[in-house]
Design goal:
The protein is mainly α and 297 residues long. The protein has helices at 7-20, 24-43, 53-65, 70-89, 116-124, 131-146, 150-154, 184-196, 220-234, 244-255, 260-267, 272-275, 277-293, and strands spanning 161-162, 167-171, 177-181. A hairpin with a 4-residue loop joins strand 1 and strand 2.
Length: 297
């Protein structure tokens, strides 16, 4: 249990909020990671500010022994890396112990995605003769057409969408704005939904396009439950997650020849390296096609 004052981390977390516009959820996760590292430091009769590279290697070992996933450990180390950079910048420390740390690697994994056939099954599964079914179909159409994050989809307001121009304006991570085209199918479903179903849902004149029961934006968790339910209706065998349609959007664009930098802009990725995983997806598809159709494969 951490008994030190919260102010140890407050200045750093405040700086993250101001400089990078991180959400409260992300900041809380950073705080939990830093408090955990500080608790380990206290077990060595130290504080997080004084840990050496050897101490941090010991911390990594303790996390591995506790059975934490590599991705969770990597996130904790990223929090430490940023904290020590802040300490050095403000003259609280002269060296960066993270500079000498060999971080555990998970390798390059491919995101789970859906085939274009599975996407069609998923989109056609909701009963669009009902208000909820029409809402679900519209959310899926918009998500697949635009590659939005689920949190971005759930927060959409009427002012974010221009049906006339067929674009959606998104304020993404770090408060960065981007414009994403909707496509004819998604635009048509949105027009029908706003005319037929939205007036019958909570807070009919409110700004939120996809409200939950209270009229507030639908939560990410609620959408996930709806997605899993619709996936069962459609007979989808791939495990679905809130990111499934976003991955499918990017994968299908790349498979059909889209430039990677265009996909980067549409997804709102700050760094092209984040988008480059989709080149691996495309390569895997080409390998399968080669094996299936080439006489010497």
């Amino acid at each position: 249990m951490d008994h030190r004052p919260a102010s140890v981390f407050d200045a750093y977390l405040d700086a993250l909020y101001l400089e990078r516009g991180l959400s409260e959820t992300t900041l809380r996760a950073y705080r939990v990671d830093l408090v955990g590292a500080d608790a380990y430091a206290q077990s060595l009769d130290q504080t997080i500010e004084t840990l050496s590279d050897a101490d941090i290697n010991g911390f990594i070992g303790s996390l591995l022994s506790a059975g934490l996933k590599i991705t969770s450990i990597q996130r904790k180390l990223s929090a430490l890396h940023g904290f020590y950079k802040y300490q050095i910048l403000h003259g609280h420390r002269n060296d960066d112990p993270m500079a000498r740390i060999q971080r555990p690697s998970t390798g390059r994994s491919l995101p789970k995605t859906l085939s274009e056939t599975d996407i069609s099954k998923l989109l056609n599964a909701p009963n669009t003769e009902t208000q909820i079914g029409l809402r679900d179909r519209t959310m899926l159409e918009v998500l697949y057409a635009s590659g939005l994050r689920v949190s971005e989809l759930c927060r959409l307001e009427r002012s974010n969408i221009s049906l006339e121009q067929g674009v959606v304006r998104i304020l993404g991570k770090g408060n960065k704005e981007r414009l994403v085209p909707l496509g004819e199918a998604a635009r048509a479903w949105l027009e029908r939904y706003l005319k037929e179903a939205r007036p019958e849902l909570p807070d009919p004149r409110g700004p939120v396009i996809f409200p939950g029961r209270s009229g507030a934006p639908m939560t990410r968790q609620t959408f996930w439950h709806r997605l899993k339910y619709i996936g069962k209706l459609a007979g989808i065998k791939v495990e679905l997650s809130p990111h499934t349609l976003r991955h499918a959007f990017a994968t299908h664009l790349v498979n059909n020849g889209a430039d990677l930098r265009v996909v980067q802009l549409l997804l709102g990725h700050e760094d092209l390296s984040t988008t480059q995983i989709y080149t691996h997806v495309a390569k895997e598809r080409l390998k399968r096609l080669h094996i299936a159709h080439h006489p010497r494969a």
